Amino acid sequence: MALGVLVTASPWGQSPAAPVPVAPATVSSPQTAGDEGVGSTPARSPRNANYTITARLDTDARAITGRGTIRWTNITPRPTSELRFHLYWNAWRNADSTWMRERRLSNGVARAPRVEDWGGIDVTALRLKQPARELDLTSRMAFIAPDDGNTLDRTLMTVPLPAPVEPGGTIELAVEWTGRVPRPFARTGVIGTEYFIAQWFPKLGVLEDDGWNAHQFHQATEFYSDFGVYDVRLNLPAIYWVGASGTRTNWIENADDTETHQYRGEDIHDFAWVASPNVIDHETVFEHPTLPKVSLRFLIRPEHRGQLDRFVWIAKATLQYYGEWLGPYPYPNLTVVDPAFQSQSDGMEYPMLLTGRSRWLAPTDVQMPEMTTAHEIGHQWWYGMVASNETEHAWMDEGINTYTTARLIDEVLARNHIEQRYFGGFVPWTFPGAPFTRLDNDRLTGYRDNPEADVPATPTWKYWPGTASVVTYNKTALWLHTLERHVGWPTMQRILATYFERWRFKHPKPEDFFAIVNEVSGRDLTWFIDQAYRSSNTFDYGVQDLIGETLADGRRRTTLVVRRYGEATFPVDVVTTFANGESVREQWDGLERRAVYVYERDVEARSVQVDPDRVLVLDVNYTNNSRTVRPRADEAGLKWALVWMRWLQEVMLTYGFFA
Ligand SMILES: [Zn+2]
């Protein structure tokens, strides 16, 4: 650990932590259908996919050699006669993988990676452990491509079993593999001496009631796997600092100038780790009167030393607010990694480990590193614990998380007094004259450029790769903001908390979320979900005409025509303000193409605004929502200049860095 630049309140470089004794599980919760005997804590999840791994990183060869045991239980009501494994690194084995093909479609750039960039994974042995002997399955392994028939794709593997695994049955497999660490692709790989190692071992798909749910690796989607216990030993040169999913249980200095780091994570569904010879390692504790204590560890780039307080502050704020709003973070620790420049690891989530992007000069107004860190910590709830299928329903993680990130950032940065302490009174979230909230952020610009890109209900891996994130992140966040404004935050908070409480450590489907929306709100909101989620129709309300006339008696008649320009419908308020300051609010159900309101007053109307409270955040054209009798060009010009400034900042600095 010699090369760490600065050690603050850390046991690193001193003595290794005492190993945590492994005791048999004493409690199995009712939802524990699988292997509750493998962990040291009461099971929160089925724990049916358990990995014991020993891996060695050869930094000269940029290679990983791994072996281990996978203990898997069939928790479905049907037997299965095969296993399916993800081999994600093979997406970067050659230019013809489905991932690479989709990337070319996505960005239109044919620039091929350099030869030395490629990575890959080879399973060198797979054996079924049986009481008498091990049965070698290696020769049975075969690559499959159920999504697109791409015979050159090696990211999904099937292994026929000699006998079916019955419901409730458990098997153990011995596995050996080698991996070549790629130059960074999709937040994974090595740049210089900085390793971010994710999706690096043969990982089982998810057996569902109707068969294996395991897709090839697609460029615009992420992952899906079952919960279990991970016990991982990582061997690498002693100069590296290591951070990983789980809790460090042991640390051994070996005679060959390497060290072995042992980590254990329970009720998690993936395992990632980082290694760097040059980080600031800072540890602290999150404490709260009603939430469990969490040990926090920060691995920060030395050049970002000055931002350590900001990382710590936003991590604690996120644990606090999400804990209060949704339910507690139940794991004993969490590691926040500030990724290396050009590592492609800008912001990425793994169980109990995440990267939160920063910059050398992070201006406070662009929310780095706060926004990425809050976003990635939020994934601990929406990906880590509520483990929906990110390949088919990515919005359930990324979209919900984008929405709650904005909710959180708005709460803690724009209003919270703590801000004053760290931002010196600078108010980052608003511009004078052009009030800005989380509703605008960068989400509307991205969405309205491609509002009809795909119907959100389409399986995510089928989205057009170039615009998938617009649907997954932007549109979902916008319709959730709209829903919040329609039902109110207290109801929305109960929807989210109920969803989290009921579906943590499980794999909910979209219908499970929608059922809770209706149940908790006490309303049938299917009409809205049908339009926002099951269609690509756009919402757009606006003012068509505002006509003033003078009547025979000298009074003024105002005729107002408001219009539904989009296919989708939503109730909107319409507020007309008169020259004497009086304003009249109408509630239009928004169903017809137009509504006409006629007012006769002593004075003329000055302005009209459709949806003045901006409930319908999905409205793709807000500029047509208002009309004034005398155009106020200067003010409008200023307003739009400020709006564009904000958009440009957000788009340039924020958009695209989340995962
Ligand atoms: Zn994300």
What's the quick description here?
The chain has 659 residues and is α+β, with helices and mostly antiparallel strands.
Structure description:
The chain starts with 5 loop residues before the first strand and ends in a 6-residue tail after the last helix. The strands form seven sheets. It has an eight-stranded mixed beta sheet with strand order 6-5-9-3-2-15-18-17, with no helix packed on it. It has a six-stranded mixed beta sheet with strand order 1-20-21-22-24-23, covered by helices on one side. It has a four-stranded antiparallel beta sheet with strand order 7-8-4-12, with no helix packed on it. Helix content is 23%, strand content 29%. A hairpin with a 4-residue loop joins strand 5 (120-129) and strand 6 (134-136). It contains eleven helices and 31 strands. Residues 1-37, 360-366, 415-437 and 651-658 have low confidence and may be disordered. By secondary structure, it is α+β, with helices and mostly antiparallel strands. It has three domains: 6-307 and 341-354, tricorn interacting facor f3 domain (Immunoglobulin-like), CATH 2.60.40.1730; 404-532, no CATH class; 541-615 and 621-653, Sandwich (Immunoglobulin-like). Bound molecules: zinc ion. Zinc ion (ZN) is lined by residues 375, 379, 398, 401, 658-659. The site of zinc ion has 6 residues, from helix 3 and helix 4.
